[in-house]
Amino acid sequence: MENKLWTIVDVLKWTTDYFSEKGIESPRLNIELILCSVLNITRIDIYKQFDKPLSELELKNIRNMILKRVSGEPLQYILGKTTFLDIEIMVNDTVMIPRPETELLVKQVLDDYPNKYKKYRILDIGTGSGCIALYLAKKFPQSEVLAIDNSYFALLTAKNNGTNLAIRNVSFNQCDILNELPTNQKFDIVVSNPPYIPSEDYEELADEVKNHEPKDALTDGKDGLTFYNRFKDILPYLLNDDGKFYFEIGYNQKNKLIELFKESTFEIEFFEDFSGITRILRGKEILY
Ligand SMILES: C[S@@+](CC[C@H](N)C(=O)[O-])C[C@H]1O[C@@H](n2cnc3c(N)ncnc32)[C@H](O)[C@@H]1O
């Protein structure tokens, strides 16, 4: 990229090939999003401004991002943002990058509670970037959402996201859910995408994930069930009588969770993602 007048289309073509050689998935999309970020334009603009020459500073910033990407840094951290459903969420390496499976969790809650103007109390355990809590707060504007995490820095990111999105009906608390309860109040809806990857599966994750995303957000360091075990014990203190809970679960955890909740006072059901993998657990207390 030295000593040459580079246009947008030159960078697009060169980097698509370079990313392909380096084994980066979706190479063209990666460079398009880098161009959008550095030039502050939309993807449509890229195609409208193909022949626009780039300044030295723009090229320097693009080059830095390309280098980070080929070194394995996730694109979302490089750009500092990602999309969750239809909102933009700021991310950094203190929070896990929101995944599409988690959008399904949120959609399930939205489907189950069609009256968006009723007032619910909602708890999000392990809020990370705040994606679940903020999305639900936006869709249920009369409701009060409590977002908790044990990570101070994750909570800072989540709070900043709340400010950027001008969402005011969420409060944030630092709380280690394995050892304490966030409040003595009860909730209509409890949601969580907890760290559920068993320690042995964690070792098999891609370097891009292991080297960049916070380990404590991904794995419980044990069998992957630590948080669900704890939830089973504390849900009676957290849920209103007709309250429901929604958890994201790992691809092979359905049967283990059926077993775990078998002797409890909760009835549970599961929902699959588009590839037929069971991803969401929904439950409520059986009242006699
Ligand atoms: C899988 S991430 C989910 C983040 C976000 N809710 C999402 O869906 O993208 C799990 C989150 O749980 C938090 N966490 C881990 N251990 C915790 C604990 N003992 N108490 C509360 N939060 C915890 C992590 O910091 C992380 O933000």
Explain this structure to me?
The protein has 13 helices and nine strands. It is of the alpha/beta class and about 290 residues long. It has two domains: about 60 residues; about 190 residues, Rossmann fold (3-Layer(aba) Sandwich), CATH 3.40.50.150. The protein has a seven-stranded mixed β-sheet, with helices on both faces. Strands 1-2 form a two-stranded antiparallel sheet. Bound molecules: S-adenosylmethionine. The site of S-adenosylmethionine (SAM) has 24 residues, from helix 7, strand 4 and helix 11.
Defining traits:
binds S-adenosylmethionine, 19% strand, alpha/beta, single chain, two-stranded antiparallel ribbon, 288 residues
Biggest β-sheet description = 7 strands, mixed
Structural class designation: alpha/beta
User: What CATH first level of the largest domain would be assigned?
Assistant: Alpha Beta
The CATH topology assignment of the largest domain is Rossmann fold
Task: Give the tally of β-strands.
Answer: 9
CATH architecture descriptor text of the largest domain: 3-Layer(aba) Sandwich
Short description:
The chain is 42% helix and 19% strand.
Q: What are the SSEs and their pairings?
A:
Layout: H1 8-21, H2 27-39, H3 43-48, H4 56-70, H5 75-79, E1 81-84, E2 87-90, H6 100-112, E3 121-125, H7 131-139, E4 144-149, H8 152-164, E5 170-174, E6 187-192, H9 199-202, H10 207-210, H11 215-218, H12 226-238, E7 239-248, H13 254-261, E8 266-272, E9 278-285
The structure holds S-adenosylmethionine (SAM).
The site of S-adenosylmethionine has 24 residues, from helix 7, strand 4 and helix 11.
